[in-house]
Amino acid sequence: MSVGPGWRRMLRLPLGKRALERDVEDELAFHLAMREDKLRRLGLAPDAAHAAARERFGDAGRVREECLAIDQRHQREVRMREWLESLWFDFRYALRTLRRMPAFTAVATVTLALGIGATTAMFTLVDGILLRPLPYPQADRLVRVIQSYPEKGLDTWGLSQQNLAMYRDRATDFAAFAGYRAGQVTVRAGDRPERLDVLLVTADFFRVIGVGPAIGRAFTAEEDTPDNNTALILSYGTWQNRFGGSPSIVGRTVDVDGRPFHVVGVMPRGFAFPRPDVDAWVPMGLDPLRGFGFMNSGLGRLKPGVTPERAERQTTAIMWDWARQNRGAGGGVPVDPSATRMKTIVRPLQEVVTSRSARPLTVLLAAVTLILLIATANVATLLSGRAAARQREINLRTALGATGGRVVRQLLTESVALALLGAATGAALAVVAVRAFTRSTLATLPRITEVRVDGRVLAFTLAVSVASGLLFGLLPALHAARGRITGDLIAGQREGARGPSRRVNDALVVAQLSLSVVLLIAAGLVLKSFQRLTRLDLGFHPEGVTSVALPLPGRVGGSAAELRAFVNTTLERVRAVPGVQSASLAWALPMEGGANYDGYLIEGRPVPPGGNEEQTFQIGVSPGHFKTVGIPMLLGRDFAPTDDTTSINVGVVDETLASKYWRGTEALGKRIRVTGDTTWFTIVGVVGAVREDDATLPPRPHLYVSLPQVGGNRLSLAVRTGGGGSAAAAIDGVRRVVAGVEPSIPLDDVRPLSSVVDQTFATRRLTKLLLGGFALVGLILAAVGIYGVMSLSVANRGREFGIKLAIGADPRALVRLVLGEGAVLAGLGVVLGIAGSIAVTRWLASLLYDVSPTDPAVLVALPLGLAAVALAACYVPARRAARSDPLTVLRAD
Prior knowledge:
The protein has 893 residues and is α+β, with helices and mostly antiparallel strands. Helix 4 (60-99) crosses helix 12 (404-438). The longest helix is centred in the middle third of the chain and has 41 residues, at 349-389.
């Protein structure tokens, strides 16, 4: 007997495809029969009535397909609605179940919150820094252009203004091309001078970047010419903070380095390039004939369809043409460039901005993924224990007719509900952690101001929570659904925890331990590397030294007599300040940057073939500089006050340079010069080697020259304080002294030299701290996991232990038994973890200094420590088993 379509719809019985087709055909046949019957009653013959009914009805096939599509769509909607209703009922039941188990729910929620929260926070950083496109229109077409000349020791080489004009005019792969370099200016907008960090740019810069001023206009080509570059575009923050957000700022004249500049625009709020701390943009004053000064970078916007590799080939060809045309001339090279590795380097701007942070952030994201897996395994262990305890309930539901799939769905819904609780808590923790991090001194990563928890991050959190809920709930749910109904209904729930359940729990604990070993070893390697790096001899002693930036006005830096008077007067007065032990002036202090980097030639030695001369840092310093910053004098003498423009040009080299050519005192009296200048300097001393920029690299050659002889516009004052006085009071006294000598110098860039050193290690320090914290969390979760498994094992084997104690077993033997089982799990986890670490930690090689990725001490000591913690976690359940009362256990059974 078949059920009619109307009854099926009323009873909401499921319909298959064939049933739907039969229903539609029955409906069509019914309507045709009704029409045919009506026509017969009107007097038509049966055949005529049959033909007329079909003619008036229309295309029955088309109507059949339309009706079938409507029914299928309706059936899908009904099934979806029923599935959602069922899921909602399951979810509500899951919440009621979790509410009845507050201790279990709290432990599982906290565990998941740690894993999901850490993962969300780390993904927020990775997403904001690495994954999101730069905040410029069509940012994927923006590239940075620099040059490279490895034969001269210049793996990266800036562009001259001549190079900028050359690529702008001849490179057809760019829709627009501009140049830029960082700089500083002194602005006097009120009673006192202020220092601004500026970017000197060519006229097309804002067209290339795709963002123009929110107020005013961009630079014109006429403003980007020598001696006419007196326009100024302010950042939004500078406009608000230093000019009060004046609506009439455009057209205002501002004193910049003693020259009148006029403000032509204000950039939009939030615009930053290349860093958020840029206060203003100034025209470079491009001189297409200036072949020296390779301090600029190129910024290009590629034409649609052009790749960076293609643009690199084109600009390299242009560079080679320039080099051939200028062979032997200023700025050129003395050999055919095709015989060298000279080339341009064209890289996507996003890659340039994030390159130094990409590997550390990726490693940290992988580390929190391990934390999430450990937390997932931990909760899976808890759920497995709960499933064993609920085996009687589950089998009773199965006996009453629930299918295995229905039971699994209910248990998975409980797992997902638990994961969502952990995700909500973890997301809150992530928001707090991200806000705290972005406002801390550790926030030195690029694009950190763009990092935020938003809908995209929350969607990731939701996906992670659902995936983790399904992951940690699947094994316990499948095992619970396969329980033996008869045995469990008769024997209770005791047997449900044995056999497969125990093997699953053991496997989960081994997985937690092995992942924790990988985390611990990775953190140990990074920590050991950082310790060796911080103990590295930098060649100077920054402790107790304060750096004060002194941008000199043109009338002082441009006059030898004025500069000599300023240097002598300033140092004399600063050294007299109470608490100051010594002071000196230099172009730049160690690791500050700002030194000249050029090739050098030694008198009497042949010029290297092909112009492949070595490179050296050239730094102008005052007398007493080496003593102030703690660079040891090895041979000869320091600079003297008499080493000025009236005496012979003298220089001091470091031992890195001296040891290449001379032994002992042979260097003294020799002459040296840089390739960008014709002035020879007589070597009067040799000092210790100093590490610049990247401390992991060997020290590079240094040539120090007398500041009164070479001059300088931007100096750094080094002040060493001590002697029992207050360092802060001494620096305040230094400020007053300098302001008294030259009131036009801004004194807002004062910082300890040790902070400059710390800044060079910032990314490594951040990696060390976060990776160490993640390893600690993993260790705690693994210890909790093995403790939970052993506690569950002891509880489920209470009857066995009670019988053994009743027949005279030694309690210490039970302790050894439980500890032995725990030791097997710990040992297996440690072995698997070490094997995994050997394969994984090679990925850390670029983050390590003087430490092998397979360092034996780390590979052995830390896993043994984890094994000891695991055994300690097993000891409490073992003691509980040994102290159990046999009569109580057997009576309860």
